[in-house]
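Chain A, query sequence.
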Amino acid sequence: EGSSTMPRCDFPKNDLTCYFCRQPAGPMDYTPGAMRNFAKDEYRYSFAEPGSCGTRVRQMALYVLYFSPLQMLCDSPSLYRKNRECFDFMSKVPTVWDDTVALGGEMDRYAALARRKGDVWYLSAIAGWCGRDASFDTSFLGAGEWTAEIFADGVNADRDATDYRHFTTTVKAGEKLAAKIMPGGGFTARLTRK
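Chain A, predicted structure.
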């Protein structure tokens, strides 16, 4: 007690366990979106400045990965103002879906899926502390070209969990979308038809 560390608190493992063990039962209450992000063994709980262990993009990916019709943001408005492009992406994520496609997973290691609302697809994945080189099959997309707005873990995200890359690319149905998910990391994309 009184320690500023929580060695038994393993956010990435908990998030994967919730996905595989709790999410199949239906909608759940979960509050992602932390903008203070900590690499493994760097997390220190704080009532004054709370945060989460794992990468920024993992926090963003949870909005798609978990089915939570009454979704909320967990952090302070001032942090969302400072991290506007992350907030803008999260604020567009629907809370109910028309279609869901599982893209793979392994308990305690990773989970990936795609969800559709109307004619917009979202793809998200998270990894445990093992990280993952991932490749997602986009055959769930309809014909034609799609613009993928992507948030991916940055090259230094294993040391600075706030590090991420934000970019767009063009994808055709059936093409592979590659991602390097850092330890405790994530990947998320919003796909719209061109």
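The longest helix spans residues 11-22. The first strand starts at residue 37 and ends at 38.
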